[in-house]
Amino acid sequence: MNLPRYASASTRSRRRPARLVAAGCALSALPLAALALGGGAADASSAPTPLQYFQKESVLTFTNASGTVIQGYPPVGGHVLEDDNDYVGNHTHHAAHPTMTDHLFCTVVTAPATATCSFEFATADSLLYADGITVNLASSVGTIPLSGGTGRFAGDSGSAASTPVGNSNNGDIVLTLHKS
Prior knowledge:
By secondary structure, this protein is mostly beta strands. Helix content is 8%, strand content 46%.
């Protein structure tokens, strides 16, 4: 996940290079996998299937340790907050409307880019999450485990791998999701 060089909390400029918080991109699509498997999670007897989704950033904010919004990447103790809209498909061909939304919250624990992150993914009456994941925010790709879920995602597990898309903070995601 490469850190943005031109990030601006107030302008949310599209000039930022891709790959900010690819971990958020990766996990943002996990609930979509379950929806693609017939409106619910795959049953325990089905083999995991690779699925693709497109994650599009809607809000990106950096704060210092006291919670004050800052320009540029946060120092140790600071936070990265990102909200995204998630579409079935990939960056070249995807649904017109998002299927779900996601939220990423990371606390920088060591310079320049190691963070502890939590992810939440909401759709209709269900939620998927990953808590306390250690992430290298400077890595451009990543695979992240899912901690759990509620509603139709109760008992699900899985992982997702993210690939950055162009000069943005968006990503294509290949994932698997299955019942534990």
